[in-house]
Amino acid sequence: MQNIHQRACRKIGKYLKIYSDIFNSRLLRETTVQRRKFTSSSPKMAPRNSPRNLRVLLDMDGVLADFEGQFLKNFREKYPQDPFVPLEDRSGFYVTKQYYALGQDIGTKAFGIYEEKGFFLSLQPIEGAIEAAREMADMEGVDVYICTSPIKKYTHCVVEKYQWLDKHLGKEWMERMILTRDKTVINGDLLIDDKPNITGGMSPPQWQHVLFTSWHNRDVTLQGGQVRLDGWLPHSGWRDILERKRQEINK
Amino acid sequence: MQNIHQRACRKIGKYLKIYSDIFNSRLLRETTVQRRKFTSSSPKMAPRNSPRNLRVLLDMDGVLADFEGQFLKNFREKYPQDPFVPLEDRSGFYVTKQYYALGQDIGTKAFGIYEEKGFFLSLQPIEGAIEAAREMADMEGVDVYICTSPIKKYTHCVVEKYQWLDKHLGKEWMERMILTRDKTVINGDLLIDDKPNITGGMSPPQWQHVLFTSWHNRDVTLQGGQVRLDGWLPHSGWRDILERKRQEINK
């Protein structure tokens, strides 16, 4: 029990130290701000409280790139005689799981569709995604990263994800690219992703999960601190979600 | 000035709240530990303080894979008449920069060496690296990730990095792989990397930088919280660095 008291006292002591640090740094910051007034050209964000940049992690498949639509198109073209799952009947994150339920061979065929050379590069951008990503990246005080998980048969997938970015957003977007099977260890404020349950080595993750609506997750109930984003069109409210979070991290 | 006082008082108030939380959670934890004594089979780590896992990020080139050695070998084989930089004369992180100093054409040739198909897959493991990585991954309370930056001409590099992992550590290591040009946003406790200055979107990063000794960084002075690791052989002390950090994050 004595330990607990000691620990609390140390904590309080530490924060009395921080109290003096705040005092000193505030003085320092005020000096800096005075200087900035004369050197910087009308920044969009007030430098007064030195807000830090909001880090937004954007998933690719199902958020920027239309994985589901291309998958169905290719499947129906390649196997016109086989049963398929219309987009409006999709449920569950893994499309192949639903196809396996139609038969072992159908599941295997489904896997083959997105393991094929060219599949990931051929994905069409989701409506408004490219414009939104560009606008976001241009926002002052916002850092955008692409945070995407390659499939296990990575042979074509990993390079095509880079090529897709090149093609639709430009070569310089490679600097923002993060390929990882575990997104929990990426240090963002928001992760915009269509996968409902994202788990990994870090629990809880640093980021808040923005569940991006896709055919397969329309009926999923939000959990924890999740919020939902229904698309990239102007009325979807993505800017509000970013703005709220930016205020939250800087308050 | 009054604001500063208010802020400090709020901080102290907050930590008085934490004080009571510590008290409550300690009681809760003690109950849990009691239960564990009868249910868990002799864990290597005492569960008493519920320590969290240490996250170690391992760079590939220059840490697991011998980039410098293979580069020089290929360069000399391909351009036997051209000047080159012996390993013991290497300085500066970017090998091509030093080759450009020998002539524009030499620099261009140097670039070509590691942009060639097969280069990244052909790299030899650094002595002891594979054994150390395996041992680390098997350690209780340690999570290992591979954290590596692809070169800008990513065509062969990205897929070969995955293939290299497959070949030397096994398919399941793909789950640990993080490809990123910005390592500062990866949430680790230690980053073992041979690049002396690692900057990016997050400053300071979450991790402590363990500078892995390479020909090009032997004479670099450590800065900030950096520590140095001279190799993967038993006497190099990598286990001590991990153990110290694990204690630090759980104290």
CATH topology of the largest domain in chain A: Rossmann fold
What is the count of helical runs of chain A?
8
Largest interface: A-B, 40 and 40 residues
The residue fraction in helices of chain A comes out at 40-55%
The poorly predicted ranges of chain A are 1-5, 11-47
End-to-end gap of chain A: 35 Å
Write the CATH architecture name of the largest domain in chain A: 3-Layer(aba) Sandwich
What is the assigned CATH homologous superfamily of the largest domain in chain A?
HAD superfamily/HAD-like
* Total number of beta strands of chain A: 6
What order do the helices and strands of chain A follow? HEHHHHHEHEEEEH
Counting structural domains of chain A, the number is 2
Strand order of the largest sheet of chain A: 3-2-1-4-5-6
> Proportion of β residues of chain A?
5-15%
Q: What characteristic shape of chain A results from the CA principal axes? A: globular
State the major sheet of chain A. 6 strands, parallel
Mean pLDDT of chain A: 86
Query: What oligomeric state best describes the polypeptide chains here?
Result: homodimer
Structural features, described:
2 copies of one chain form a homodimer. Helix content of chain A is 44%, strand content 11%. Chain A is of the alpha/beta class. Mean pLDDT of chain A is 86; it is low at 1-5 and 11-47. The interface between A and B is large, with 40 and 40 residues.
Can you describe this structure in just a few lines?
By secondary structure, chain A is α/β, with parallel strands linked by helices. The first copy, chain A, is built from eight helices and six strands. Mean pLDDT of chain A is about 85; it is low at about 1-5 and about 10-45.
